[in-house]
Amino acid sequence: MIHLAKVTPERSRFLLGLVGAGIQASRTPPMHEREGGEQGFRLSYQTIDLERLGIGPEALPELLVSAERMGFAGLNITHPCKQAIIPHLDELSADAAALGAVNTVVLRNGRRFGHNTDWWGFSESFKRGLPGAGLDSVVQLGAGGAGTAVAHALMTLGVRELILSDRDRSRAEDVAAALNDRFARFETHRVRVSEDLAAEMAAADGLVHCTPTGMDKYPGQPLPAELLRPELWVAEIVYFPLETALLRAARRIGCRTLDGGGMAVFQAVEAFRLFTGMKPDHERMLRYFVELGSEAKEATT
């Protein structure tokens, strides 16, 4: 069951938050606040940065209680808490339960409802940013909370063979097994774990990157640049910076690319609806996301 708030004269203000580590540069808070203002109500969105507070996911129970006591309507959840938050929730949406990852928590009437809007966010971004992209064989790096959602999205988009590569092989195997079970009705669409990344990259139509590598906090490239080739499309979920080292290398040789901005916006579009009960203007949120990026660039030059 989807639990939505409704904007009424009694509830014309919303207090929201983002829980994660190293999130000070996130564009999510101002994006939500701006859309709330455009919709005609007040929305205050706070960052709860575990890194700055010197705590880890083990503090989630205390943070949830505090958010409830302070009147938060909901929380967005990001790395490294998307899976750790689940035991502390009362109910999960079908998507969140299937994916085993939550990025949106609605707090309502003393109960905590977990949702996953990441998979829909990636799917919407992919359809708009890489129309006509080949989907016969796709390599995905990373099978954590966000990676699980992206893998689900890729299967709904029609990928015939999805190859998962993760430093934790058992985690990738668990995700592959769950996806194969969930999409068993599509006999020709399968998920497997990487055995030879170089060979798989040489035969793939596309690459999706779903690890923190490339973020300002975790600089670098998730795989050797020589594994890229011009015929490959490359999609990224990291959006700060918007152009990661991986995307730079891919664009340099002529690959079609998709940055992480679209996923960031579209997951926020659905989260906003869940938090407030109001349908946001996704085009307006996309424009504001781009504006925020331009402002950030100007501030550092």
From TrEMBL:
Gene Ontology molecular function, alphabetical: NADP binding; shikimate 3-dehydrogenase (NADP+) activity
Protein name (Swiss-Prot/TrEMBL): Shikimate dehydrogenase (NADP(+))
Subunit structure: Homodimer.
Top-rank taxon, per record: Bacteria
Amino acids binding shikimate: 26-28, 78, 103, 118, 239, 267
Keyword match Repressor: no
Pfam families assigned to the protein according to its UniProt record, in alphabetical order: SDH_C (PF18317), Shikimate_dh_N (PF08501)
Record family assignment: Belongs to the shikimate dehydrogenase family.
List of catalytic residues: 82
Residue stretches making up the Shikimate dehydrogenase substrate binding N-terminal domain: 18-105
Residues annotated to bind NADP(+): 142-146, 237, 260
Enzyme Commission number(s): 1.1.1.25
Reaction(s) catalysed by this chain's protein: shikimate + NADP(+) = 3-dehydroshikimate + NADPH + H(+)
GO cellular component: cytosol
Species: Phyllobacterium brassicacearum
GO annotation (BP), single: shikimate metabolic process
Matches recorded under HAMAP family: Shikimate_DH_AroE
Keywords per UniProt: Amino-acid biosynthesis, Aromatic amino acid biosynthesis, NADP, Oxidoreductase
Pathway, per record: Metabolic intermediate biosynthesis; chorismate biosynthesis; chorismate from D-erythrose 4-phosphate and phosphoenolpyruvate: step 4/7; Aromatic compound metabolism; 3,4-dihydroxybenzoate biosynthesis; 3-dehydroquinate from D-quinate (NAD(+) route)
Segments forming domain SDH C-terminal: 262-286
Annotated function: Involved in the biosynthesis of the chorismate, which leads to the biosynthesis of aromatic amino acids. Catalyzes the reversible NADPH linked reduction of 3-dehydroshikimate (DHSA) to yield shikimate (SA).
